Give the backbone structure.
Amino acid sequence: MKIDVYGQLVYTEQDVCDELMRNPVLEDYGTFLVENLPDIDNIVKQYREPDVDVEEFHKQNQQQWFMPAEYKNLDIAKHILDLCNTDDELQRVGEELLLYQERDLFDLLRYLLYLVDTMKKHNIIWGVGRGSSVASYVLYLIGIHRVNSMYYDLDPREFLR
């Protein structure tokens, strides 16, 4: 656990795993978090106003996401294109990947792939999908949701606008 330059408390995956190993039946996970909070005065002292705009703030935070090197270094475009079975799928994925690239979201796609793989590995169940995210066929291929947007002819711009 650490406090970042913006005063936010950051628990690493290792912090949470260590606590789960010590106490596999956490009935009140909130209690664990509260009991392990540092002194609030120290948080206030360490907090400072960010010297960067919102875009730069988000970019800096994305660089701090915990993600194994195999995911950080993954050619996400190639990985997703390899999941396609038909020319129509390749066309749709190519168009969507250009939209993701324009918005500098490839790191997000890598992280989402890591998240889905981790949830599958640990048998964690997540929803079938909702909202505008189901318009993205790329997210369907990664496993974020289970709505085939090509089948329902959903426009990916509904998600990426």
Q: What stands out?
A: The chain has two domains: 2-62, 69-158. The mean pLDDT is 82.
